[in-house]
From TrEMBL, chains A, B:
Organism the protein comes from: Algibacter agarivorans
Sites where the protein binds Zn(2+) 1: 60, 62, 140, 210
Catalytic activity from the UniProt record: Endonucleolytic cleavage of RNA, removing extra 3' nucleotides from tRNA precursor, generating 3' termini of tRNAs. A 3'-hydroxy group is left at the tRNA terminus and a 5'-phosphoryl group is left at the trailer molecule
The protein, known as: Ribonuclease Z
Keyword RNA-binding: no
Keywords (A to Z) from UniProt: Endonuclease, Hydrolase, Metal-binding, Nuclease, tRNA processing, Zinc
CDD domains: RNaseZ_ZiPD-like_MBL-fold
Annotated Zn(2+) 2 binding sites: 64-65, 210, 268
Length: 301, 301
């Protein structure tokens, strides 16, 4: 699982600070999460093969999370993309994108599917043999969802000694990896778990931005390997966080602790602070495993 | 008159190539012309005091000329702007901007005025004591206008010897500069032109992008000091220019020659070419005074 941070600052893009966008590579999928203005340039700058993106997840319709979407869609057209593109986001996202295509008289030559979200409960919105994606209802000034990405369990591993001793024809190894019991050369049914071990543990990633402190997301994100939780402010500005429906680093850490996540990744920083270390320090007072998102940084989990 | 090129490439923003946007400072006005994605970052990067912008002129609603507009409007809000902002552009521009503000539930705290254009004839769209702005109807795939910016004549200059000999009270000098006749200390009416000289010659700038070769703009832009004319292609791709309703460097030069402009400024280059010199050479074969727009370059005329 690889996460590339294209932008992790709040409010407005600046010379050195990009607004929210990240690319999650998980089980051979490449997902784009949020798409602030300039995301397509960040994709190029960081040499991401962005034509591989087939699914884009938009948390909410504030500009710093989606003003780059229409430009990216338009660029895919100019690059003569043919692959389907799926957009997940709040109701209204289809109208605003299609209005711009209409005004420009520039329609995509690939299929563009909008999956508009309105539910305030967590929903399964994407599901294939590799990955599933659920919404995480958040509490912000406008309708907002985080997204939970979960790998499907991989194939089981053969316990080499055991499988050989069991006198199983090699032709059945594939079925064993898929979890089935098989009949051996002696006509005896071999229980799968006696000759295989679980595959590698499926990874999971939860993206939660933008939101104020919201404890009821804890059951949804329980035990995820990585939680990206917004921390627009430090505790000294908790009143601003409450007013603008954002979170502090301490609040993000509290959510991480309650959800027993593996790593907490902080982001969506206000640019009012000098540097990011104070965010990490504040969070680590509550929860140990904290990392700082930074524009251009890549994490492998 | 100062022109700052924020972006002058066609189609899509790239790591080193920005799409169309420029700032024209003329007679104490600061006008923004077109606003491709990332314009607000370019404004910051080039340290332009962009809160001084009160008027934005959008040529047409293709993304590479206006996808940065809503972000800039939104950033002005976050910067707690209070000054009125006027947007000039094709019909539809108001709907698309206001839809995005509605979806974000984020309305400006300053007054935002839209001046939607539909005419196919040149119109006077802005006029004060310093500058007037006219549309230049262009021929592109969607409804498009260029813009002609003309300084108003400045104050006349006193002919010092003559004005002293005429025995005029100093209190009347201001009226003389404004072009009025005055009565001198002896009760005699002094004709203005006998004691004053014309002020400095008013400057003018014509922005023409995007358009195919269109001779009937020549009378509108006649004798302008500077003509920015798009040259997306070189003549070797004249067939593409025709197909996509763009112009070649040679065609831009032909327009400049017919209109007797002072300087031709080329821009809106396709990124298919290695370097820009070929554009200049091709144009100079037709018209001598050619300059190349480049991202981040500033011209003083």
């Amino acid at each position: 699982m690889k996460l590339s941070i294209l932008g992790c600052y709040s409010a407005t893009p600046r010379t050195l600070n990009n607004t929210t966008s990240q690319v999650l590579e998980i089980n051979n999928h490449m997902f784009l999460i949020d798409c602030g203005e300039g995301t397509q340039v960040q994709l190029r700058k960081h040499k991401i093969k962005f034509n591989r993106i087939k699914h884009i997840f938009i948390s909410h319709l504030h500009g710093d999370h989606f003003f780059g979407l229409v430009g990216l869609i338009s660029t895919f057209r100019l690059l003569t993309r043919e692959t389907d593109l799926h957009i997940y986001g709040p109701k209204g996202i289809k109208e605003v994108v299609t209005l711009q295509m209409k005004l420009a008289d520039s329609w995509t030559n690939y299929n563009l599917y909008f999956h508009e979200l309105t539910s305030k409960k967590s929903e399964l919105i994407f599901d294939d043999d590799k990955v599933e994606v659920h919404t995480i209802p958040l509490n912000h000034r406008v309708y907002t969802n985080g997204y939970l990405f979960k790998e499907k369990p991989g194939e089981r591993k053969l316990s080499i000694g055991a499988v050989e001793n069991a006198n199983i024809n090699v032709a059945y190894y594939r079925k064993l990896k898929q979890g089935f019991d098989v009949v051996n050369e002696d006509g005896v049914t071999i229980k799968n778990e006696t000759v295989t071990k679980p595959g590698r543990k499926p990874k999971s990633y939860a993206f939660c931005s933008d939101t104020m402190y919201k404890e009821d997301i804890v059951p949804i994100i329980k035990n995820v390997d990585v939680l990206y939780h917004e921390s627009t402010f430090l505790e000294q500005h908790a009143h601003l966080a409450e007013k603008t429906k954002h979170a502090t680093a301490k609040q993000a850490a509290s959510i991480a602790k309650q959800a027993h996540v593996g790593t907490l990744l902080l982001g969506h920083y206000s640019t009012r602070y000098d540097g990011l270390n104070a965010f990490k320090e504040e969070a680590q007072a509550v929860f140990e495993h904290v990392e700082l998102a930074e524009d251009g940084k890549t994490f492998k989990f």
